Q: What sequence folds into this?
């Protein structure tokens, strides 16, 4: 077949893709999506769950450990960056000293020219010719690569999923009402219920009420809570800032969420 013909003097697009070059794409099934109520780091039901202002759910221990590791990495990169700046400063001072010495040498050269005969001055000013050195391939005479610049470190920790700034104080504790779903052949699984209607939450849109931390379906919120803007648990008045839209569970339907993963590798 023409797509399997390898006798050409060049690689066809089909051959490059089979060799692993170019943009590789893969369709994701339902088993590759994170169900609602699972930790985005541990990929298992969240323990002592918290959510971010961006709507992602994590286990408290997992996200705190991740942010702590980010803080350690930031401190390490900051120390490396400070050393790089100090080295650059010393190199700049050396360049200034060399320039000063060059100007002094020029001034001394002018004085010598005025004091001695022109022929003698010409002999003194001519640099000595260097002897022929070995080939350029000898390591001692090979050019040195310039040291690459060290980029400045990040200033704040970020959310592992979105990459947006996130601090520990931004984490919001939530309460997930769960029950066992025994309809699966491989054993019961945990599913999350709406705190008000007690309907199972799978891939529907969900919101979290920040003061009480309860999780309700967006449809239930619009029908029951949005009119009075009162928390059904604590009885406190709610504002728009207290309503956090959570990321719904993933499905294998392209109309609901992204079901394709892609990565790019340089072409040959």
A:
């Amino acid at each position: 077949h023409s797509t399997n013909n390898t006798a050409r003097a060049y690689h066809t697009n089909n051959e490059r893709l089979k060799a692993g070059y170019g943009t590789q794409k893969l369709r994701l099934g339902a088993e590759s999506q994170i169900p609602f109520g699972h930790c985005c780091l541990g990929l298992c039901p969240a323990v002592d769950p918290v959510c971010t202002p961006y709507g992602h759910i994590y286990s408290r221990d997992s996200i705190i450990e991740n942010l702590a590791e980010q803080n350690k990495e930031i401190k390490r990169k900051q120390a490396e960056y400070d050393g790089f700046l100090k080295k650059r400063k010393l190199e700049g001072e050396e360049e200034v000293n060399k320039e000063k010495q060059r100007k002094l040498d020029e001034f001394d050269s002018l004085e010598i020219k005025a004091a001695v005969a022109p022929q003698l001055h010409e002999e003194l000013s001519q640099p000595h010719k260097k002897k022929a050195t070995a080939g350029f391939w000898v390591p001692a005479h090979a050019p040195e690569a310039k040291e690459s610049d060290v980029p400045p470190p990040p200033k704040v920790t970020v959310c592992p999923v979105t990459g947006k700034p996130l601090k520990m104080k931004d984490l919001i504790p939530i309460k997930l009402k769960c029950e066992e779903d025994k309809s699966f052949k491989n054993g019961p699984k945990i599913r999350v219920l709406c705190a008000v209607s007690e309907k199972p939450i799978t891939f529907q849109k969900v919101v979290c009420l920040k003061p009480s931390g309860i999780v309700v379906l967006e449809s239930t919120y619009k029908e029951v809570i949005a009119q009075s803007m009162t928390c059904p648990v604590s009885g406190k008045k709610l504002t728009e800032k207290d309503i956090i839209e959570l990321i719904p569970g993933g499905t294998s339907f392209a109309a609901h969420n992204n079901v394709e993963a892609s990565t790019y590798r340089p072409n040959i």
